[in-house]
Design goal:
The chain has about 200 residues and is mainly alpha-helical. The protein contains eight helices and no strands. It is globular and about 50 Å long.
Length: about 200
């Protein structure tokens, strides 16, 4: 899915109107972080290789090369992030000294885990090894959020409609204007997506 979709899904599920600003930020950042290696890869490629360099095409695109595959495996690993989620829950539930830290980590890791869970079902032949480092096996989903041969056009339209509905929900739920503005900015890619699909 688009990174903006992951961000607003994480925000909608983990944000609460009574949260402090740092807690709200963690809710949004948790949905973004699994895609950080991709943004770093693109920035690195632009700086080193310039525009027009092959990033995505198999087998020689930068996405398919090391160290980017390892970075993606780490950031999309169910076992690793399940451990973080469990640690966060234990700290929040059972530690009075680290309860605040546990809550922050829990907010972040739930958004993070939602992201990699949705990616699990929307990445076809571009999937990461989702259970790294236990195995290099990959689940290749029969649907893709972008590839037309894997229903990408249909998924893209459904994602845009869902994204706009979540943005509307966030704007109604939160009275703080910075949150509302951030949600509206997250809606911009959906306009582009719908334009490209029709």
């Amino acid at each position: 899915m688009l990174t903006s979709s992951h961000i607003i899904i994480g925000a909608a599920v983990t944000s609460r109107s009574h949260f402090k600003p740092w807690q709200l930020m963690l809710a949004w950042v948790g949905g973004f972080m699994p895609d950080l290696p991709i943004f770093l890869m693109v920035a690195y490629s632009r700086l080193v290789n310039g525009a027009g360099y092959n990033l995505w095409r198999k087998p020689d695109g930068l996405y398919w090369q090391e160290p980017w595959q390892t970075f993606g495996s780490i950031s999309n690993s169910f076992p690793l992030w399940a451990l973080v989620l469990i640690l966060a829950f234990v700290l929040f539930k059972y530690s009075s000294r680290f309860k605040t830290l546990g809550l922050g980590l829990l907010i972040f890791s739930v958004g993070y885990f939602l992201h990699i869970s949705v990616d699990f079902i929307t990445h076809a032949d571009d999937a990461y090894p989702q259970f790294w480092p236990i195995t290099d096996w990959r689940f290749y989903s029969p649907i893709s959020y972008w590839q037309p041969e894997y229903y990408g056009r249909i998924v893209g339209v459904l994602e845009a409609i869902m994204g706009l509905a979540i943005v509307a929900y966030l704007v109604m739920k939160f009275k703080q204007w910075p949150i509302r503005i951030a949600a509206i900015l997250m809606a911009l890619p959906y306009g582009v997506s719908l334009f490209l699909h029709f």
